[in-house]
Specification:
about 650 residues; alpha+beta; 8-stranded mixed sheet; 7-stranded mixed sheet; 13 helices; 31 strands
Length: about 650
């Protein structure tokens, strides 16, 4: 596997080439499977398959259609490849290659774009590229398959920070690296500019775990907003807003429960967990109620109910932290989260701090519980991922559903600032009414989403016609009529993701996107971010920079939007009809279909793979290639026409 990444300020573009070889000189391989990890926030920008210097570009299609194309091509003996997300975890992907010829190589190239997290320890962006899938607890479907560890990994990262920035420090706490300052790999050797750098793995050897790179540069945490125009889709624009907040508001009288992973998978990480827990405990202010819940297959408590922090209770907790071992069995995270919420003080707001490697398959159930707990009890959830290969989809997903934030730490990595900022976030007063004002009144007036009314909701009821009890035209083969037909939902003029902006925490990067379906000739020079708190209102004006034509921001926005919908949130769930009724309440049995349709629409439109969309490529012989490419283009054209007619308002 060859990996070449480019870090552009707070985002990354990674091109990874996987080479599969059939060593037999006589026998083709009917089908091969390869399961591998991708970082949770990555969006697939391109997928190509190359055999004998012939390259075929993959096309994103609804998952069922992509599978149909793959199976049809495979049955005809054509070399074909399909790339799709595992049904068990959104950070696990699979490639299937059909009909790999004898004595041949196939090169699969994936181009990924991703937004980078802010590392609170180094106060800079943190780039993560997972090189292996850690074993996970619980039952997984056959879809997850077996992972084949690549025998060699060549990895290079070029770094380009914004103009006016100077790179001060580059670290890799995970792997030995060689750093070249002042230029990227594509620049002349005589060039030198302090905002550029290039990094390579020190040795091209077998690698595993997560490759981590942190960059500290001047002016890299300034608030920014970038407006991008799509090169193909008419009138399509996308906005990315990113900032590292710096503010102080009053703390609140909250209860903190530490939920610590003591399952068997934590055995080699237990020293790091003890260090983090001890630092958390020593930083708790006197008087704050806290407790420790340990979990594995079984659950244990430090106390039955949380206690106020005092010299006595703190001493008991620190002694307890020193005795923590990986002795509680399997990784039953959901039961532990339920136990923590059930044991809460009813008169206090609860903040849950989860310390785990996240190595479990039942992630969707965990996210559902966290989302409901936040919605009904205003409970916030924070995660500290511990270890060299964590489940990023769970570590990132829980705080996304629970209005907190996450950080990760490798074994024996520095963690004091991460712990302090996370504890401060848990103690910080809750923000509300967080809004992004784009100063576009003609678009903001829309409060409702247009839907096609079903037969059961006609405005003027009419008397039904008399039905004959003996109709000679009735054969019994008539299709069963749908009781609740699927409403046709039109997307609003803009889609914001996250649909409800997440809480802002000091020194923790927040990024939001807006997909604009109506072209704005003169976009405002500034947008305004607002929030409310018990300490008073908060406000920030952010300048907007037009970055011209491109697809990167659109793909990141589409990925974030589809991920939110896949996790049970997003604009579909808050959309209302013209009567002011929530569509999700009016048509609860059809919401899942509406979500799937919207994810397929966005996936095909912006060519982004996900839970409901896969990427497929077919190698054709001779003249047939043009026919298949024409078929693909016809499919895309028809889909685009459907999308434009059904969804994009003129």
């Amino acid at each position: 596997m060859d990996v070449h990444a480019t870090i552009l300020s707070t985002s990354s573009r990674t091109v990874t080439t996987q080479t599969f070889i059939n060593p037999s000189s006589t026998d083709p391989i009917p089908e091969l499977f390869y399961t591998f990890p991708l970082y949770e926030s990555s969006s697939i920008a391109a997928f190509t398959s190359t055999i004998d210097e012939k390259t075929v570009k993959g096309v994103v299609k609804p998952k069922g259609k992509a599978e149909e194309v793959y199976k049809k091509a495979k049955a005809k003996g054509k070399t074909t490849a399909v790339f799709y997300q595992s049904i068990d975890a959104p950070d696990v992907f699979k490639i299937r290659i059909g009909n790999l010829p004898a004595d041949e190589e196939v090169h699969i190239e994936l181009t990924l774009v991703a937004e980078l997290k802010q590392d609170t320890q180094t106060n800079g962006p943190r780039y993560t590229f997972p090189l292996s899938i850690a074993p996970r607890y619980g039952a997984a479907s056959n879809d997850s398959g077996l992972q084949i560890q690549p025998p060699k990994t060549s990895l290079m990262v070029d770094i380009s920070m914004e103009k006016g920035s100077n790179i001060r420090e580059i670290r890799s706490p995970s792997h030995p690296i060689t750093v070249t300052l002042g230029r990227t790999s594509s620049m002349d050797e005589t060039a030198f500019e302090s905002r550029y750098a290039s990094v390579t793995l020190h040795e091209n050897v077998l690698s595993s775990g997560d490759f981590i790179l942190t960059i500290n540069a001047t002016n890299q945490d300034r608030p920014c907003a970038f407006l991008e125009t799509h090169p193909i889709i008419p009138d399509q624009q996308a906005l990315m807003v990113s900032l590292v907040p710096k503010f102080t508001i009053q703390s609140e009288d909250a209860e903190i429960i530490f939920v610590i992973d003591r399952s068997g998978s934590m055995e080699d990480k237990i020293l790091t967990l003890r260090s983090a827990l001890k630092l958390f405990l020593k930083s708790i202010p006197i008087g704050v109620h806290f407790n420790i819940v340990s979990f594995g297959t079984r659950i244990s408590y430090l106390w039955k109910r949380s206690r106020a922090c005092s010299r006595t209770s703190l001493g008991q907790a620190i002694r307890h932290s020193k005795s923590v071992e990986a002795d509680h069995g399997g990784t039953e995270i959901l039961a532990a989260l339920e136990a923590a919420v059930d044991s809460r003080q009813r008169n206090k707001l609860l903040d849950v701090l989860l310390l785990t490697d996240g190595q479990t398959w039942n992630q969707e159930e965990c996210m559902d519980f966290v989302r409901e707990s936040h919605k009904t009890l205003s409970t916030r959830f924070f995660t500290l991922g511990i270890g060299d290969e964590v489940s990023h989809s769970l570590i990132e997903g829980i705080p996304r559903a629970g209005a907190g934030f996450s950080q990760t730490v490798l074994n024996y990595e520095e963690l004091d600032k991460r712990v302090i900022y996370m504890l401060k976030g848990a103690l910080m007063g809750r923000l509300s009414n967080i809004t992004l004002d784009m100063n576009l009144p003609e678009m903001m007036d829309e409060e409702f989403t247009e839907i096609e009314e079903s037969r059961s909701s006609t405005a003027t009821p009419r008397l039904p016609a008399t039905i004959s009890l003996f109709d000679e035209n009735c054969t019994g083969s008539e299709p069963i009529e749908e009781l609740h037909p699927l409403p046709k939902v039109s997307a609003p003029d803009f889609i914001q993701s996250p649909n409800e902006l997440p809480p802002l925490y000091p020194f923790v990067r927040t990024t939001a996107y807006v997909l604009l379906w109506k072209h704005i000739d003169t976009f405002p020079e500034k947008i305004t971010l607002r929030a409310s708190s018990s300490s008073g209102p908060l406000e920030l004006e952010i300048p907007v920079q037009d970055v011209g034509v491109g697809e990167t921001i659109h793909k990141l926005a589409a990925k974030k939007t589809t991920t939110e919908l896949e996790e049970g949130a997003g604009w579909i769930y808050t959309a209302k009809d013209t009567n002011g009724d929530l569509i999700s309440v009016k048509c609860p049995a059809r919401v899942e279909e509406l979500v799937q349709n919207e994810c397929e629409r966005l996936g095909v439109l912006f060519q982004v793979a996900g839970k409901y969309c896969s990427t497929v490529a077919v190698h054709e012989d001779g003249e047939e290639e043009e026919d298949v490419e024409a078929e693909d283009m016809h499919f895309i054209t028809i889909k685009m026409q459907e999308i434009l007619s059904l969804f994009i308002k003129r």
